[in-house]
Amino acid sequence: MSWVTARIKVQHTSREMELTAVNLAPTKRGFPAGFSEERLDETRQLLDTRRTGFSLEAPFYTDDHLFNLDMQAIFGQSWVFACSVAEIPEPGDYVTLDYGPYSLIVLRTDDGGVNVLHNVCRHRGARVLTADNGTTGNLVCGYHSWTYSPEGDLIHASAPGEMEFDKACYSLKRAHGKIVAGLVFLCLAEEPPADFDDTARIFEPYVAPHELAKTKVAYQQNIVEEANWKLVMENNRECYHCDGHPELACALFPTWGLTDETIPPHLEDVWDRNQQAQASLEYRCRRYGLPYEVVEELDTRVAGIRISRESLDGQGESFSADGRRLVKKLLGDLPDFRLGRCSMHLQPNSWFHLLGDHVVTFTVLPINAHRTLVRTTWLVADDAVEGVDYDLETLTHTWKQTNLQDKNFVELCQRGAMSPVYEQGPYMKSEYQVEAFINWYVTRMREHVG
User: Fold this and answer.
1) Of 7, 159, 164, 170, which residue is 20 to 30 A from 241 by alpha carbon distance?
2) What residue spans define the domains of the chain?
3) H or E stretch at 154
4) Distances from the Cα of 110 to the Cαs of 88, 98, 117, 330, in angstroms?
């Protein structure tokens, strides 16, 4: 299995991941090493005194120990978006995901499900699979050839003269995995959050008509941003900065997140055009039986979500300069290209744009306290032909440029958070979703530290 992949800077390596979070090993109390009772009290105080409506204190963006706690309390407990089924379409196809100290294998099974295995050999801890993606039968560690089944069972570890031992005791460690409407999620917790199934029931009717199982990867971009993962997520949760996205603003109305009361004078005409386009879109959605209503529970449930179907400017079909379709093939059983974008945010690490002609998925994978991998994947109909049904550069242009602009924005914020004079700043009314994300984060951390 292969697809076009681009890397901006140098993508993190497994070795780097090990070096940047070596202190995550839990103490007897279950917290990362280095978390004394005094440090836990300091963390609780930071959480308890967090100013509502303001950004976090600087240590939440800069401190290595708090990053390790994030990996345990957030990424070690939440359902995390891993990939789409288009990235692992056939049995034996896999992707590997590294975040914080963790390395995971997400492997498609013969029955169409997924196995999620920790990518740590039970012999001496070597990475079993080292490629970002590929196809495999059994999993063979390249160090001493310990061999595991797709379920993670150890099936071969013999050497001349060695005594027999119980192989059943040395299976690869497993995590939870599930597929919902073609999106693949994993969870490292022994007991995953139970409300994810309720969240899945919310978004499945919006996503299912795009039939991701009948798509393929057109392109994948990996960008390492020199910023804390929370700054990456905060940046995505608002459009206050969207004047800095000229390519995106051709199709995405820059009034996103605003209301009648908060529209500035220079955007009043755009606001009126947006309202007309939205009314037309909702009419078509009702005609076709497609859900479009806003569901917003970003901080009122463990598996926080915001989803809606929203109009695009111009022709209202895709992320192009004039809003026209970028791919000639409709996805799934959709009846019309003029369906705007189905926009979904999921806590803690993902957002999605599902259009009539293609889908863009975004995965945020923390590396350390001040580095984050953002993975963007473009999906098109599996029978779409590059150069015939779409031009790859045109298809990816808007979000390639937008991602680079966002990289610059969040890196500016990271440098500011590291300054001795940094202090919390207020969120504007249009940044209410940033506040919701931070409130969700603080709630999860409070639950963890007690």
Assistant:
1) 7
2) 86-188, 193-449
3) strand 154-156
4) 12, 24, 16, 28
The neighbour count for residue 128, using CB atoms within 10 Å, is 26
CA atoms within 13 Å, Cβ hemisphere of 191: 1
What Rg, from alpha-carbon coordinates, does the chain have? 22
Q: What is the mean pLDDT of residues 160-185?
A: 89
- pLDDT given for residue 15 in this prediction: 32
Least confident of 150-164, 336-350, 368-382: 150-164
In the CATH hierarchy, which fold is given to the domain comprising 86-188? Rieske Iron-sulfur Protein (2.102.10)
**Average pLDDT over every residue of 223-229:** 98
How many residues in the chain? 450
> For 193-449, CATH number?
3.90.380.10
Amino acid occupying residue 146:
W
Output the six-digit token pair for 287. 């005609």
Identify whether the C-beta of residue 43 lies closer than 8 Å to the C-beta of residue 66. Answer: yes
| Residue 5 reports pLDDT greater than 60 | no
Q: What is the mean pLDDT of residues 408-432?
A: 96
Give the whole-angstrom CA distance, residue 167 versus residue 158. 10
Per-residue pLDDT at 3: 59
CA 152, CA 161: separation in Å to the nearest integer?
A: 25
Q: Write the DSSP assignment of 104-145 as a string of letters.
A: EEEEE-TTS-EEEEES--TTT---S--SSEEE-SSEE-TTT-
